[in-house]
Amino acid sequence: MIGTQRQPELLGQTVVVIGGTSGIGLETARRARVEGASVILTGRNPARLKQAALELHTERTAAFDANDSASLQSFFEDLSGPIDHVMVTAGAPHYGPALAMPAETARRNLTDHLLLAIEVARAAADKVRPPGSLVFMGGTGARRPRAGLAIASTVTVAFPTLIASLALELAPIRVNLIAAGFVDTPLSASLLGDDLDKRRNELRSTLPIRRVVGPADVAALAVHIMSNTALTGATYDIDGGQQLIS
User: For the chain, which residues make up each domain, given as ranges?
Assistant: First the structure.
């Protein structure tokens, strides 16, 4: 049988990755390039951004803090042409006892991720050409309430509802959420420190997939969500079955 060559899933499209200098963001940018897309990278660290851009031969880069509303708005306003997809991986989960946090810290930790999604949606609305998409990163680990996870749990529960609402408001632009469990990234390494290898070994022995989820797994899902134009307003879990074990 003569095989047929598969056409790249994002051929001729432009993907913006906000927070694209390491981990899931960088891997998604790599995958998008393999699938034929032009990539625009943003990140806070100019040196890492330059290194990632050289590797991926990106169309453009911009160094700024995604949580700075003015910089985010300016970035989208300055784009010279339409784009097709925006992947947002900027930000990190907030852990710690809510009652021990100063009020302003608790307020910021509760709202950072949610407000970033709203700001990106607002800024990108006139730049993304349908049936393009916005893809945001969330988590699954805080769905079970535990001491010290009040902030993370609240954001985890609220995020899918916000994403569904944005999908209706931005239609026919699509909006989706990837909810990841533990992913073996530099961010995970910074959070766990000396306990990283212990956590990896624990997951390898207990997860149904018998391995640790990596950035490439999430990137593959992100590109599928971008390319499948029937997907919007939904949350897609990727945790190797982590929620199925106690």
Answer: 14-183+214-238
CATH top-level class of 14-183+214-238 = alpha beta
168, 234 Cβ separation under 8 angstroms: no
pLDDT at 2: 57
- Pair 39, 17: CB distance under 8 Å: yes
Distance of CA 95 to the CA centre of its chain: 19
Q: Which residue has the higher pLDDT, 112 or 1?
A: 112
Return the structure tokens found at 144: 């079970």
H helix or E strand, kind and range, residue 216: helix 215-227
The residue among 25, 139, 138, 149 whose CA lies nearest residue 85 is 25
3-class DSSP state for residue 139?
A: strand
DSSP string, 90-110: ------S-GGGS-HHHHHHHH
Q: How far is CA 204 from CA 61, 179, 180, 221, in A?
A: 36, 20, 16, 21
> Residue 193 burial by CB count (10 A; 0-12/13-18/19+): exposed, middle or buried?
exposed
> What does pTM read for this prediction?
0.93
